[in-house]
Amino acid sequence: MREITFSEATLEAMKEEMERDDTIFVMGEDIVRQGGIFGQFKGLPDSFGIERVIDTPISETAIVGAAIGAALVGMRPVADMHFADFMGVCMDEIVNQMAKIRYMFGGQARVPMVIRAPDGLIRSAAAQHSQSIEAWFNNIPGLKVVTPSNPADAKGLLKAAIRSDDPIIYFENKDLFRQTGEVPEDEELLVDIGKAKVVKEGTDVTIVSYSIMMQKALEAAQILESEGYSVEVIDLITLSPFDEETVLESVKKTHRLLIVHEAVKIGGLGGEVAAVVAEKALDYLDAPIIRIGAKFTPVPFSPVLEEAYRPKTEDIVEGVEGMFK
Amino acid sequence: MSKELYIQFYRTMYKIRIFEKRIEEFSLKAEIPGFVHLYIGEEAIATGVCANLTHADYIQSTHRGHGHTIAKGAQVDRMMAELFGKSTGYCKGKGGSMHIADFSVGMLGANGVVGGGYTLAAGAALAEKIRKTNNVSVVFFGDGASNRGTFHEALNMAAVWKLPVVFICENNEWASTTPYLDVTSVQDISVRAVSYSIPGVIVDGNDVMKVYEESGKAIERARKGEGPSIVEMKTYRIKGHYVGDPEMYRTKEEVEKRFDANDPIKRFKDKIISEGVLSENDFKEIQEKVINEIDEAVQFALDSPYPEVEELYNDLYID
């Protein structure tokens, strides 16, 4: 199968969907001339014109607010946040408007929009350009939060998000953009929103992860397999509301759970996954649940400190080994 | 100026007034739950502005939004039911006074967040621009809300893209319980239009005819693709910030004086009578009909059931 980059995969998703449905448009900072920081919008203006591919002022609040307003009257906007960190600027629009409008208006409204939010650590971008902030949105009913871990899912998940009638935050890890992978040439390649994927089956321990940490989870699984452990790895894909069923089913089989994400551990999504398993499957557990995430500090600048902040493959390996001691 | 339009203006303003008076009663008795913000004294603005709009045009309203909702053409019975938290309300009892909406007439929602509506209105206008229609979007906001950052972002975006959106400022002199001049750098909000190279005008917001004409010019400009405007309606908030507000920050006398001198409904009635267009009897007829309609709306709300508890989880997600 052909291989393309994660960035190209998202670009293909945009092109195919915009061709299919002319209510879709995209807006954000530096899209038209620059083609997006990661090249993820390159060439779109040539195909669809600057009426549907729009460079905005540096006004995250107005970008998200305008996307909501356009969605309310029948469009399907995609709003790019440049860096996920900047969602702090437009938090009211996301949590008080976008997430709640349909519910508080008793179902009269639809808000079919996608916020694209590049997140995660990348080359010393430091405290305000490196965060993984998915947990901020985890206790906001009305939003769906998704994130792909590879190019094929990046395409299928973005297409599914654009087609969804619900407001969706699509986190895309910045370090993944340049990575390549097999992506089927299929215009109906869609990833189910709300469903986790068992990426590798196993019987001794369940590792739950998502986004870029899936790579470390799988790397750790390989090491652990060589040590004789049978490891199941789940890619959560949809972070809110997450697929409890797949996680619970797995834990009931393996009796052990480790959750790993790049976001800080404290208050992270791992805590919610752990709590659900503790509530609903405690009796099945043979070892305490382990959460692995970044250190509880802002993302530091110096490469040495950034590396110390980042969760690592050996953290996962050691975590699992410890469950069997 | 046609007689029909006079009747329409009077009827709408009077309907808003009676609606507000009735909900004030029920809110004080706590039979209407939650926060209620009254529009009494500002009726001419919603009435005059919305008379320039069709149901294909949009409005974004505020926490003080009953007047806008009525003027845009919503039914008072379903509004009343919503305020009572009943299942027959516009939002099935999930929104209440601060989150009322009627998408079928282009009323895209009140907003509990002060200054929350500008960017949404700009977005609705952007959609119409992309679709190349002549529809416009109107956002109502207060003097206090003009100090939000959203005001700047939406105005700049709307101006630079020449979006068909009109910013209607209801300057009622009070930002909640604070005199607006204590917290605002300018006396006239409309002068802020200069920063965005768009027109900004000041209108007597208690003169429904002036409101109609001046907002009409801005709306027409937007329809023609010439971009946004700020139309500042000078008015005065007659009631407290919310029903039950002890109003420690001003005297009863001050309010009464302002109301007696400048009640928009009385002013309009006096004008029509002096012009000889309608008689006292004509007014009586309109008033009786309106009172009857509001009474029926109240009865409808009282008779309607509360939502089933199962309704809690509905309308959260579509897919």
Q: Which class of chain B in CATH terms?
A: Alpha Beta
Runs of chain A in which pLDDT lies below 50 for 5 or more consecutive residues are none
CATH topology-level fold name of chain B = Rossmann fold
User: What is the fold named in CATH at topology level of the largest domain in chain A?
Assistant: Rossmann fold
Give the name of the CATH superfamily of the largest domain in chain A.
Thiamin diphosphate (ThDP)-binding fold, Pyr/PP domains
User: How many helical elements of chain B?
Assistant: 11
Distance between the termini of chain A: 43 Å
List SSEs of chain A in N-to-C order.
Answer: EHEHEHEHHEEHEEEEHEEHEHEHH
Describe how the helices and strands are arranged.
The complex is a heterodimer of chains A (325) and B (319).
Chain A: E1 3-5, H1 6-20, E2 24-28, H2 44-48, E3 53-55, H3 60-72, E4 76-80, H4 91-98, H5 101-104, E5 114-119, E6 144-146, H6 151-163, E7 168-173, E8 180-182, E9 197-200, E10 205-209, H7 213-226, E11 231-235, E12 238-240, H8 244-254, E13 257-264, H9 269-281, E14 290-294, H10 303-309, H11 313-323
Parallel strand pairs in A: 2-3, 2-4, 4-5, 5-7, 6-7, 10-11, 10-13, 13-14
Antiparallel strand pairs in A: 1-8, 6-12, 9-11
Helix pairs in contact in A: 1-6, 3-4, 7-11, 8-9
Chain B: H1 3-28, H2 43-50, E1 58-60, H3 66-71, H4 76-83, H5 118-130, E2 137-142, H6 149-160, E3 165-171, E4 174-175, E5 178-179, H7 180-183, E6 200-204, H8 208-223, E7 229-234, H9 252-262, H10 264-275, H11 280-303
Parallel strand pairs in B: 1-2, 2-3, 3-7, 6-7
Antiparallel strand pairs in B: 4-5
Helix pairs in contact in B: 1-2, 1-10, 1-11, 2-8, 4-11, 5-6
